[in-house]
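U., I forgot to send this yesterday:
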Amino acid sequence: MTHYPHHLRLKKEMRKDENMSQPANVIQFLTIAKSCEIWRSISSAIMTVTNEAQFEAGPNGIEFRSKDQSREVYIDIFVPRVVFQQFHCPVLLKFGIRINEFSKIIKRINSSFPVEVCIQDRFLVVTTIDTFFCRYKSNLIESRPSSIPN
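Result:
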């Protein structure tokens, strides 16, 4: 059996028409962005008020609303589906993530390459193809009801 260096095993060639993700019927939520900059901006803003981000995604886009613990700062973010190259979320989906973990993953990604963010099973999966094919998994946290009125 031939053993290859670790970096060669991670490398994946990708055709132009190939999608980074697995088939959409397995995926509850999927976004593909031209770069990770949108996710960097979102995570940076959310980290000013909380460590655990509770998102609500649906056919029109992704939403985050929260107040900080002192209830002095309110943040309301809506990212419409058209911001992404590809967006798939056919039904309303609420999910939570540890924003500091997500931010660390996003900071590792070169902003010159597309990034895919999706939910598979109970994981948030971030995938990119830079020089190498990279996939990061982070556990979702239990979604809690929002304390912010509509």
